[in-house]
């Protein structure tokens, strides 16, 4: 599924009548075009959700071209590249992508893109914008790869602080983490939450980090230990398979301990894997992005505009929200670069400089993201971090909290 968006250049027809000959000539506004490289996975592990994510990103670029881009005299062309979510494939494709498109930005998908391009993009001076949360091992200065969300550990820490406040009392909240050693990213989630518990002992008590298989068959014994420990929450930011096994293990032990998930393995995906959202009644998802619930929000209104006016076919869910939010902050940065440097001669380096020049406000992303302030110290904002919390109530996803503050964490 590789294609380049088409650019239609309008023209004005001049009439030859004597009356019109005396009128002032009309000129079409010159249009400057720039290219974006979109890294995608239509045949690998994310093939089932990629059509939704891809269309959600693309429609925002179409919307921007028809609105702000038209006013600025700029058009963004985009092209998807099939990476199969494989670092070797990304590395193999990159020289051709760079030669073919000379992109001013890359719109990435996940870890393989980071692994393949983290050392190449600084040399090529092309920034890459992600949709997901970040990782502690990527927490380096002078990055060219940027996440609108902090690390998964930051997001979980924000949720735990909120849950403790809802519970009340002075005791730290007890929690367990389920992860896997099969992926550095999964291991990182556990390490970050260990740092949180160490730095905030008065607020958080980590009872156990359980490392399991990526697709565990039975976690009944492990969940028995968690239940006996007095844990008040189980954090699972890995995948749906671990959520399913943990939920079955809790049910087998008669333990009513809420699970917190992230966006990629959140309530819709894990609920589907369990046979329905009702299986996750009272469980949570938390991340630094809008919750795609049925409630009337600014983000949902913007989504409806994309559906009605720009032909978006994707359902209103967390995957769609990830794609829209990723594209919105990408075009916001590009627009800042145009405002600062003009429409002509834009480069990837100027786009990256614009990222640091001023915040991306929540208004610019239509409420999909909190206001973001990037600095060269990290690939994600370090201050003003917020998470939103969703839950299942009466079989439906609802918003439990918005704008929850995220605790500061030391780099691990």
UniProtKB/TrEMBL annotation:
It holds the Pfam family Peripla_BP_6. The keyword Acyltransferase does not apply. Residues 1-30 form the signal peptide. InterPro entries: Leu-bd, Peripla_BP_I. It comes from the Bacteria. Transmembrane segments: none annotated. Keywords: Signal. Residues 34-359 form the Leucine-binding protein domain. Belongs to the leucine-binding protein family. This is ABC transporter substrate-binding protein.
């Amino acid at each position: 599924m590789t294609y380049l968006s088409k650019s239609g250049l309008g023209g004005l027809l001049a009439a030859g009548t004597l009356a019109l000959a005396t009128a002032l000539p009309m000129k079409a506004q010159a249009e400057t075009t720039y290219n974006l490289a979109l890294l995608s996975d239509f045949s690998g592990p994310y093939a089932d959700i990629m059509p939704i994510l891809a269309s959600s990103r693309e429609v925002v670029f179409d919307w921007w071209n028809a609105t702000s881009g038209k006013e600025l005299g700029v058009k963004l062309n985009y092209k998807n590249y099939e990476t199969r979510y494989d670092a070797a494939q990304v590395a193999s494709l990159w020289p051709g992508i760079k030669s073919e498109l000379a992109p001013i930005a890359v719109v990435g998908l996940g870890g393989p893109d980071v692994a393949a391009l983290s050392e190449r993009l600084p040399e090529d001076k092309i920034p890459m914008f992600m949709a997901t949360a970040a990782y502690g091992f990527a927490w380096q200065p002078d990055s060219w790869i940027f996440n609108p969300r902090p690390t998964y550990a930051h997001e979980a820490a924000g949720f735990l602080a909120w849950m403790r406040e809802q519970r009340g009392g002075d005791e730290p909240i007890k929690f367990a983490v389920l992860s896997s050693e099969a992926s550095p990213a999964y291991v990182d989630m556990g390490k970050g939450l260990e740092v949180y518990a160490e730095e905030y002992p008065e607020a958080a008590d980590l009872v156990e980090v359980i490392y399991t298989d990526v697709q565990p068959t039975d976690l009944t014994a492990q969940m028995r230990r968690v239940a006996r420990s007095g844990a008040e929450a189980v954090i699972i930011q890995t995948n749906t398979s671990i959520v399913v096994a943990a939920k079955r293990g809790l049910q087998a032990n008669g333990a009513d301990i809420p699970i917190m998930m992230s966006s990629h393995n959140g309530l819709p995906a894990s609920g589907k894997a369990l046979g329905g959202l009702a299986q996750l009644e009272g469980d949570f998802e938390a991340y630094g992005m809008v919750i795609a619930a049925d409630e009337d929000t600014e983000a949902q209104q913007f989504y409806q505009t994309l559906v009605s006016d720009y032909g978006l076919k994707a359902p209103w869910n967390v995957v769609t929200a990830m794609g829209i939010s990723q594209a919105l902050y990408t075009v916001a940065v590009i627009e800042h670069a145009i405002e600062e440097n003009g429409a002509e001669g834009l480069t990837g380096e100027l786009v990256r400089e614009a990222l640091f020049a001023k915040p991306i406000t929540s208004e610019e992303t239509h409420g999909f993201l909190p206001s973001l302030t990037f600095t060269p110290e990290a690939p994600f904002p370090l201050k003003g971090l917020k998470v939103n919390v969703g839950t299942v109530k009466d079989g439906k996803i609802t918003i439990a909290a918005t704008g929850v503050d995220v605790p500061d964490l030391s780099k691990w």
